[in-house]
Write a structure and sequence with these properties.
It is a single chain. The protein is of the alpha+beta class. Among the domains are: 81 residues, Herpes Virus-1 (2-Layer Sandwich), CATH 3.30.40.10; 159 residues, Apoptosis, Tumor Necrosis Factor Receptor Associated Protein 2, Chain A (Sandwich). The strands form five sheets. Strands 9, 11, 12, 13, 16 and 17 form a six-stranded mixed beta sheet that branches.
């Protein structure tokens, strides 16, 4: 068990190779937030929206009134036929600009030309419908799991693919759990008696994983991101080890979503560094709706059995949190090249000597 992070890892079958930490030393590393005393002579504060005549001019009062935010327009919940919000040519959700043909069919800008050839000219722009399809909002499909956002109807499907509240499944075969990644931690601990391995980013951690348990949950202490380390037989002489982030497949497309790299390495039980294998690659994302990763697919580390000690796999795991890259349009407009991956973020393998 790691010395410096012992208080954060009550059930973690892992160590980071550090020993001999003292309690006094640990307390010295805890940051102290000191609150500054309030000054006695503070400037007089006025309540928001208060108008005063104490030294204030009528013009100042009018400025305060003019600076008040405009009230939000009233909104209502309605039910309507979904077909009214879909293009009558491609049957996809309408997006501004919306057009209408001579026969009265409402089509999107993409289908305007093709539909005009089949059913008269579709060159009548409908700004009123632009306002409707651009202002019609629906709740997120994962509202029951915690997402409280309302999306413009034609963008709801795109949000659904990347929603951080997309429910994930339990990695245990046959388990019917369905919920957000944060709830998966409590579920695995309470229902399957699995320890939650807590790690910090940017440093290696040695995990001792029983081969009898085919999956292990890892959580990043900095942002509580959930990862899954899975083990699977790769023939009769090796075990495939893979690591993924438990979240929606499209989460990496969100502007503020972090990207992760991982480095997995296994040394010979005798500590001979000439007999080791390693892999470094990007961390993929999955809600586990299809279960555990299929052995031999995607990125994985093939560990020969001669590098294992009995029924336990000792593996070094390092997870790095990267800042999300800038949008492609911004990079092209600025002329700046895309950010390069860190030096350690390359897929490499050292074969046994």
């Amino acid at each position: 068990m790691a010395g410096q992070d012992k208080r954060c890892l009550p059930l973690m079958p892992a160590c980071n190779g550090e020993h001999g930490g003292k309690k006094a030393r640990h307390q010295a590393l805890v940051p102290v937030v000191k609150q500054e005393p309030r000054q006695e002579a503070e400037e007089e504060e006025w309540e928001e929206g208060e108008l005063t005549s104490h030294g204030g001019s009528p013009g100042a009062a009018e400025a305060l009134v003019g600076a008040a935010p405009a009230p939000a327009p009233p909104q209502i919940d309605v039910r309507m036929d979904m077909a009214l919000l879909h293009c009558q040519a491609c049957f996809l959700p309408l997006k501004p600009r919306v057009f209408k043909c001579e026969a009265g069919h409402v089509v999107c800008g993409y289908c305007r030309g093709a539909h005009g050839e089949a059913c008269g000219r579709a060159d009548t722009h409908c700004p009123e419908l632009d306002a409707v399809v651009g202002g019609t909002k629906v709740p997120c499909a994962y509202r029951d799991f915690g997402c409280d956002r309302f999306l413009v109807y034609h963008g709801a499907a795109e949000h659904k693919r990347a929603c951080p509240w997309m429910p994930c499944s339990c990695p245990q075969p046959g388990c019917a759990f369905l919920g957000p990644p944060a709830a998966l931690l409590d579920h695995c601990s309470a229902e399957h008696s699995r320890p939650i391995i807590q790690v910090r980013y940017g440093r290696p951690w040695t995990l001792s994983l029983p081969l009898a348990q085919r999956w292990h949950v890892v959580v990043g202490q900095e942002d509580r991101s959930v990862f899954l380390v899975s083990l699977a037989d790769l023939g009769v002489a090796a075990t495939a080890v893979s690591l993924l982030c438990v979240r929606s497949d499209g989460a990496v497309a969100l502007p503020a979503a972090p990207h992760f790299w991982c480095k997995l390495s296994v040394e010979h039980p005798r500590g001979d560094k000439d007999e080791m294998i390693m892999m470094a690659s990007a961390v993929s994302s999955s809600p586990l709706s299809a279960g555990l990763p299929v052995p031999g697919q995607g990125m994985f580390l093939a560990v020969p059995h001669l590098l294992m000690s009995g029924d336990v796999l000792a593996i070094s795991v390092r997870i790095d949190q990267l800042q999300p890259p800038p949008p492609a349009s911004t990079a092209v407009a600025g002329g700046a090249p895309a950010p390069a991956a860190p030096a350690h973020a390359r897929t490499t393998t050292r074969r046994l000597q």
